[in-house]
Write a structure and sequence with these properties.
This protein is mainly alpha-helical. Helix content is about 75%, strand content about 0%. Mean pLDDT is about 85; it is low at about 1-10.
Length: about 550
């Protein structure tokens, strides 16, 4: 059927897309405004999200919260649940009360979340800030995406969602870089101060959306106001949002689509919730540094900023390496949007999901920096072929007056997938890949074998500099039992103690721990989920194709 002439029914069939340049030229002013607002929001959001796992699990002596991956998983589970479930209901509010109002309110709430994180440097302070931030994000999303859908049509939707995803990743690329610079540059005051400045910077960044809101023009405002007038005058019946939402959710093509994509978001979010820990603990970035810079070090401020390097210019921080994902999407998503527009929507999603799955298996079987770079880039291409298509597809089959509601529904699989992964991902990591846990176990073995012992003299002083324990407290542990000594080591510091007490190089000990444990199991589990998801999307696509060939419409 034609794209925008029929608002009452939606075709199951794919619509031929405009060419590359024609599609870009057809995008309206308001599309670019909401793209800019999403870019600003993502810049602030990923300034925290990309480093949340590191902040939570880093030892207190390094400015972190010193909690286990499992404890962080509990926090992340609620964060995911709030951020993903609320849009199911806030989407309908955006349709009824206006996108501009909900975007404004969400920005205020998000600022409050960042401020709580900055002021309360504790696990529970970060917990509270994350929940408030999640609530603000949940209100923000439907209004932005609902505007995008109404500002585009079926013939340019692939390019629109691709470019929107590209602008999102400009923010996603810059956010972790800003975080890396804040925590490196202000760590000279204190490690905790560096983290505080990360949250302060994010609060200031999201405030820029108040300026962009001045130029925002709500698409379909007159239609929304007319519906409200008819309702006030008793000329139009308006159902409860709960009843209306539940009725839409029970439609088979909606329910199945959302159920299948729960698996996609389960494996997808591992890249952002668990990979930073994997890179920090197991990936040797020295080969990347040696290739890029003579002597494996640089003092060039440009490279230190854009690669997310440490203050000394000797290493790439985990968030810097992970940022290759957003960087590639930022510069190339319009091209992959064009390629995905040449395929059926479900075909593009299947191909993208399989590519992302392949990269997860590769991540689990390597410690080499350049191999990790390749795996992240493959994942990014898969993401560009699948993730934007997910939102585009549901936005296209949504009824015209329920665009934000359906895009709120699109958060349900994210709620299921990310909430489960938010808990299970760090939990699995804590079982199969925790460097701190494995260091404690090896330290017990070495102490019992007599090949490890507490350092003395300058060695104690050096160890104390890397610990929350004082030199005197460390010396007092001498002569005690092995179990008492190991249990006294603060969370996150065990590997530093293992190095100090065995005298072996850190790189060699990391290799020993990696070879004697099944680190790959975390990523293999996620990879299997990816394969099952791809199969589900393929079968769903066959069903949709059969319906479209029968000329059936979604009413």
């Amino acid at each position: 059927m034609s794209e925008s002439n029929d608002h009452d029914s939606t075709s199951l069939a794919d619509v031929k897309q405009l060419g590359l340049f024609a599609a870009i030229a057809s995008l309206s002013y308001v599309f670019w405004v909401v793209g800019a607002m999403e870019m600003v929001e993502r810049l602030a959001y990923y300034g925290v999200k990309a480093v949340a796992a590191i902040y939570a699990t880093d030892p207190v002596s390094s400015g972190g919260l010193g909690v286990t991956p499992g404890e962080f998983g509990v926090l992340l589970m609620l964060w995911a649940l709030v951020q993903s479930i609320l849009p199911v209901f806030t989407g309908g509010l955006s349709d009824r009360y206006g996108y501009k109002l909900t975007i404004f309110c969400s920005t205020v709430v998000k600022i409050l979340g960042y401020v709580i994180m900055a002021v309360f440097h504790t696990y529970w302070g970060f917990y509270a800030g994350a929940v408030v931030l999640a609530a603000g994000t949940a209100v923000f999303k439907p209004g932005i995406q609902g505007t995008l859908v109404k500002a585009t049509n079926r013939s340019n939707s692939s390019m629109a969602w691709g470019i929107f995803y590209q602008t999102v990743n400009i923010g996603g690329f810059l956010g972790p870089i800003v975080a890396a610079r804040m925590r490196s540059d202000f760590a000279a005051i204190s490690p905790a101060h560096g983290w505080t400045m990360v949250f302060v910077a994010c609060a200031l960044i999201i405030s820029c959306n108040f300026i962009l809101l001045l130029s925002y023009r709500e698409v379909g405002k007159e239609e929304r106001l007319e519906r409200a007038r008819l309702h006030r005058e008793g000329l139009r019946r308006q159902e409860s949002l709960w009843i209306e939402s539940l009725r839409e959710l029970t439609k088979p093509h909606v329910f199945l689509y959302l159920a299948i994509f729960s698996g996609f978001w389960f494996m997808f979010n591992t890249l952002f919730d668990v990979l930073p820990l994997h890179i920090r603990d197991w990936v040797d970035r020295s080969d990347v540094m040696a290739t890029l810079f003579e002597g494996g070090q640089t003092s060039n401020g440009f490279f230190k900023f854009f690669l997310g390097m440490n203050a000394e210019g000797t290493d790439i921080n985990p968030e810097g390496l992970l940022n290759l994902n957003a960087g590639l999407i930022m510069i190339s998503c319009f091209f992959f949007a064009y390629l995905s527009g040449l395929m059926r929507a479900t075909t593009s999603m299947v191909v993208g999901t399989l590519m992302a799955t392949l990269s997860l298996f590769a991540i689990g079987h390597t410690t080499a920096g350049w191999t990790m770079v390749g795996a992240i880039l493959i994942f990014s291409v898969g993401e560009m072929l699948s993730s934007p298509k997910f939102s585009e597809f549901i936005g296209n089959f949504a009824p015209h007056d329920k665009k934000a509601m359906y895009l709120g529904f699109s958060q349900i699989p994210l709620a299921v997938g990310w909430t489960l992964e938010g808990y299970l991902g760090p939990w699995l990591y804590g079982i199969f890949a925790s460097k701190d846990l494995f260091s404690r176990q090896l330290l017990v073995e070495r102490l019992n074998a007599g090949t490890a012992h507490l350092p003395s003299g300058d060695g104690v002083v050096k160890l104390a500099e890397q610990s929350t324990l004082t030199a005197q407290q460390i010396q007092d542990l001498a002569g005690g039992s092995t179990e008492q000594l190991v249990s006294t080591i603060p969370q996150g510091e065990a590997f530093n103690w293992l190095v100090a007490m065995t005298g072996e190089p850190a790189k060699a000990l990391t290799g020993t721990l990696y070879q004697t444990h099944d680190i790959h199991m975390v990523w293999s589990v996620m990879g299997v989920v990816g394969i099952l998801t791809a199969a589900g999307i393929y079968l769903y696509g066959r069903w949709i194709l059969a319906l479209s060939r029968q000329g059936k419409e979604i009413q």
